[in-house]
Amino acid sequence: MATIKDIAKKAGVSAATVSRVLNYDATLSVADETKKRIFETAEELSYQKRPVKKHAGQKIAIVHWYTEKEELNDLYYLSIRLGAEQRCKQIGIHPEVYFFDNLETINPAEIEGIIAVGKFNSKQVQQLTGISPAIVFVDQSPDEDLYDSVVINFEKAARKIIDYLISANHRQIGFIGGKEDLREKTFAEYMKEKAFYNEQFVYIGSFSVDEGYRLMKQAIEELGTDLPTAFLISSDVMAIGSMRALHEEGIAIPDRVSIIGINDISVSKHLYPPLSTVRVFTENMGETAVDTLLERMEGREIAKKIVISTELIIRESAKML
Questions:
Q1: Which of 81, 129, 132, 177 could make a disulfide contact with 234, Cβ separation 3.0–4.6 Å?
Q2: With contact defined as beta carbons under 8 Å apart, do 98 and 299 qualify?
Q3: Which residues contact 42 (CB under 8 A, 6 or more apart)?
Q4: 62-120: pLDDT as tens digits
Q5: Cα four-point dihedral sign 120, 278, 250, 25
Q6: What homologous superfamily is domain 1-45 in, according to CATH?
Q7: Is there a shared CATH topology between the 1-45 domain and the 154-280 domain?
Q8: Rounded to whole angstroms, how far apart are CA atoms 46 and 171?
Q9: How high is the pLDDT of residue 137?
Q10: pTM of the prediction?
Q11: Pick the CATH number of 154-280 from 3.30.1360.40, 3.60.140.10, 3.40.50.2300, 3.20.20.140
């Protein structure tokens, strides 16, 4: 496992800077370019290379639904993109990276296919497929009869967390997540099935560190001593903000509140305490998207939907009551 010193050495910054960036220290003043270099280095050092067949000379577009700045606030998608880029480098394909705010700069004549990373609306899907019919969607399946896709069963991931927390004797379990989040729907349905659901323990915002912080602060203020003993948090970046809010209020993790996120981004193991989470194999999602696109470019006509597995990782941020 890469250490903070390993990341600092390769990124050309101090270990203290790496630690503060990985923990989203709000008091740190550092350029976005430095943050990006640190995050990308942390991801790259976590990859395990494997021998592959070379495909020299081909060029594809990797299209990200965020802007470049927004990507820094959601490392889940950054990690998928880097996985795709690393795979392209392994097999000799040249990837051109685009963010959705500069989509008009893509020249259809210069690319042979598209990897679309994120959740695009129907108009955007049409725009992308108009650029190239050879396309793979990652983290979304707009039409599994028409388009290739690589996805995660986040509903199953949420159930894994709930099953663990209940087995650890937690009964008051809260949820912090994003809008239009299938994980929140699964949480509500599964907790009702288990007869432990409490609507007052559910807080919804957007997927960012700042929103995780704000929502946990709101929960602490509104619930007081009735604060749940555990929270399922819909993404690791939101969990980072939530943990900061708990630290500021002097609420012990995990002695008073257990926290489990989803994604297992590379920074999660460097938090204090290290974050329990469901590992989403984001680099494998990116790699699989490249392999799937190659099949399309080589003539496969039948659409393929690939579901990547997840793994529950229990670290020091969660414990049994």
A1: 177
A2: no
A3: 2, 7, 18, 22, 266, 267
A4: 998 877 777 776 778 888 999 999 999 999 999 999 988 788 899 999 999 999 999 89
A5: negative
A6: lambda repressor-like DNA-binding domains (1.10.260.40)
A7: no
A8: 35
A9: 98
A10: 0.79
A11: 3.40.50.2300
